[in-house]
Structure formats: structure tokens, C-alpha cells
Design goal:
Elements (H helix, E strand, L loop, with lengths): L2 E4 L1 H8 L3 H8 L3 H8 L8 H11 L3 H4 E4 L2
Antiparallel strand pairs: 1-2
Length: 69
């Protein structure tokens, strides 16, 4: 079975934006955004994904990657 890898940290580094700043822009608690960044979530709401993509000016595919085990 495959898995999804979250690349939020890479996109944030490319955009030179920190977790606190992104959290404020997106309106998501810092701790929840940190869990997402570290891949410790099992689901992401589309509204959250839309807000993150809007703040980082990226596509969902920039943030999520599918890989086979």
C-alpha cells in the first residue's frame, strides 16, 4: 500500500515563511499546522488545503506527494 508524504515544510522553506506567520495567514492553530507539516494527521479538509495554497501561492500537488512503499 502507498502513502502520502506532506511537503509543506519544503514549500514553506522555498517561500521563506515560518510556521507562526503561515498560521496567522491561514487562520489555523499553530499546533495543528505543525502536525500537518510533520505528517501526523490522517485527513486534511479541503478548506484548509485551499487556505494553505492561497497563502503559499502553490498547488495542492506541491504540498502532497504519493509514494509506493
Amino acid at each position: 500500500m502507498g502513502r502520502i508524504i506532506v511537503r509543506l515544510d519544503r514549500v514553506m522553506a522555498d517561500r521563506k515563511i515560518g510556521l507562526n506567520e503561515l498560521s496567522e495567514q491561514v487562520g489555523i492553530a499553530n499546533v495543528n499546522l505543525s502536525k500537518l507539516k510533520n505528517g501526523h494527521v490522517s485527513a486534511v479538509r479541503f478548506s484548509t488545503l485551499i487556505a494553505i495554497c492561497g497563502a503559499l501561492h502553490c498547488q495542492p500537488g506541491d504540498l502532497l506527494e504519493y509514494t509506493e512503499d
